[in-house]
Amino acid sequence: MSKRDFDEIVGRWLAEEAPSEAPDRIVQAVTDRTSVMPRGQSGVFGPGRPALIAYAAAVALVVAVAFAAGIGFAELRRIGTGPSQAPIPSLPVTPTPSEAGVLPRPTDIPGDGTCEPDRRCFGLLEPGTYRTEFLDPNFSFTISEPGWQNLRSSGGMLDIRPLDAPGDELWYLMDPSVRTANGRAVAGIGSTVDELTAFWSGRSDLTIEGLRPAAVGGLEGVELDITLSASAPDAVDGCPTEPCVMLGASLDPAEMPSWLWELTLWRGAAVHIWILDAGSHRVLLVATAWDGRHLDELVARLQPIVDSLQFLESAP
Question: How far apart are the first and last CA of the chain?
């Protein structure tokens, strides 16, 4: 693609479809990454820093379209340069709770195993053993009975969802970094198991329970339950209901990032998280109960799948 082609595609998309602005944390994440990119001397963007800044702005605006486009608890952000990488369908924002105070389950999550656009997935999970190919570290897992689906198994993420409980899910997420409730990065805190655990335990907007050592598939770490505390603020937009806060995020470490995820938690939901040390990487396994009162039931249902995980390899 020539620079002129690129300019025309981005210009047309910005004029016809782009939002007027991106959330500050999205712009910051992209500009932080472009600040350490090598200055190209040829190719699509031409020489020098200004082209990279323009690229960062275009990418940040594209990501803004995906700002409210997460499916379920792990809000997935797709980074692209045009409408050929359109965001995935979004959940309804702030639906009305029932009289019992339970948030209605989402109705727009595919139930036929259809992969997210331009992503790999296993689709409907028949009983058997599966092995990932596009994650780091890769792993195998076993499904012992039907009733599950996988809609994404690339780009730093993999999901396993029960077909009979939309909104409940298990996510594999790569390389988390801590964030404040409103999504800001925190200087001086790394992503080791101990640092992640201490940071979440020290946040007044979160309630941590059941913290204990864990071992999954050859990796060691901890596991814990997280819900919102009574004082949690409404700090993040685009969640199924309010209040909503951010737990963590990750941006593709490649020079030209192709994915970004953010992990949020809202009132009424609950998560059980395994934080695992994979050497040069950290891994999160996040079990999300759409109705947090049933988190223990969901974890018990997912436990045979988690117990079957075998981590296979990690890039040096």
Answer: 32
- Closest Cα to residue 219, out of 186, 257, 174? 174
Q: Is 230 helix (H, G, I), strand (E, B) or coil?
A: coil
Dihedral sign, Cα of residue 297, residue 156, residue 35, residue 84: negative
AA identity, residue 74: A
Q: How far is CA 26 from the centre of its chain?
A: 14
**What are the pLDDT tens digits along the chain (316 aa)?**
444 444 555 455 454 444 545 555 555 555 444 444 443 333 333 333 333 334 444 444 444 434 333 333 443 432 222 222 233 333 444 454 544 456 889 998 999 999 988 889 999 999 999 999 988 899 999 999 999 999 999 888 999 999 999 999 999 999 999 999 999 999 998 889 999 999 999 999 999 999 999 999 999 999 999 999 999 999 999 899 999 999 999 998 888 888 899 999 999 999 999 999 999 899 999 999 999 999 999 999 999 999 999 998 654 4
E strand segments, 163-202: 169-174, 177-178
d(CA 257, CA 233): 31
Sequence length of the chain is 316
- CA–CA dist 305, 40 (Å, integer): 45
Cα–Cα distance for residue pair 181/165, rounded to 1 Å: 27
Identify the residue whose tokens are 């600040």: 35
Instruction: Show contacts of 84-89: CB within 8 Å, 24+ apart.
Output: 84/118, 85/117, 85/118, 86/117, 88/116, 88/117
Where are the chain's structural domains?
A: 3-68, 123-313
Furthest C-alpha separation in the chain: 61
Phi first, then psi, for residue 10 (nearest 5°) are -65, -40
Distance, in Å, from the CA atom of 185 to the CA atom of 13, rounded to the nearest integer, reads 30
Q: Which CATH superfamily is domain 123-313 in?
A: Mog1/PsbP, alpha/beta/alpha sandwich (3.40.1000.10)
Question: For residue 38, what are the CA distances in angstroms to 3, 10, 47, 178, 246?
Answer: 18, 22, 10, 26, 31
